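Example record for the data management plan.
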Amino acid sequence: MKKCRHISLSLICAFFICALSTVTSIAGDATLLDFQNALGIQTDTAFLGMPLSDIREGDVIDAVVVDASKMGGCKPGDRVKLFFMGEDKWMVKHLDSGNAVDIVTVHQNGTLKLAKTGTYTPATSETAPAPTTSNMDDSRHLTAVFKAGGYFPNNDLDDFDTGFNAELALNRYLSPYFALEASIGYANTDDAANGNFYAVVNNDVYTIPARADADIHIIPVTASAKGVLPFNQGEVYLGGGLGVYYVYGDFDIQVAGFEVTADDHDAVLGAHIVAGLNINIDKRVFLGIEGKRIFTDEAELSDTIEDIPIEAEFDLNGYTLTGQIGYRF
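Corresponding structural encoding:
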């Protein structure tokens, strides 16, 4: 973005003597959070930590009035739109009345000053209900997130290796502090075991080396509810949810040079606890890390090899740790 140009002292003075104008000072490296606090409005929490210098000419930001004393002629809950006109100039439009006021940002002695040149005459028609800081309609947004990392099984699969885990998720933010997530993913783990197969022939017992390889593939479809704590550069969250876990098992058994295979599938219910951290790269893209604890019912897999039944029962309990990249719509 172009650097904010200095405005002459005479122009600054003109704002001070205007009967309807107000001037507010904020830090020179102000973020959108500082800007909205100075104006008494609430914008989308996804953008709060974004520096004003990153906002481009023509950008439009939705907001809701929370402090009517700072936006003359407004009521709490009124909707406004912020239009960045370029070269330090903003226009704030009151959506109910259609009226607008101009805002000019002025850099002076390391301080960014906001000069408002007018007040609204809002329409007497229907006004939005007063919002609370935890329930802003304009704070709702949708994110798409791709996650990839490791699956660390324990409990019944404690001897199995660390596997791969990936997910694709959609998050719907119902407020700055609460979101719902739906996701589908893939995870796998495997194990190999060496042992002995015992055969009895003419009352003699023979020991035959055997090897078994097991591959477990999992497709989880889950839904989560998350409490979110936003901060200037991102957010942290904690939540939990439920899901259905589709399980496919592939077993390879080798005995005395012979190899046989068995496979089966099942679907089980599960629950999870999740926690994560996201850091904003810009107003749309963010990077993060997420940990999840998984608890499931036991999957039951069975097959028959040469009339010999092969059965396995195990849960999918474990952890996932993933890095993630997301995009806000």
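Summary line stored alongside the record: The first helix runs from residue 9 to 17.
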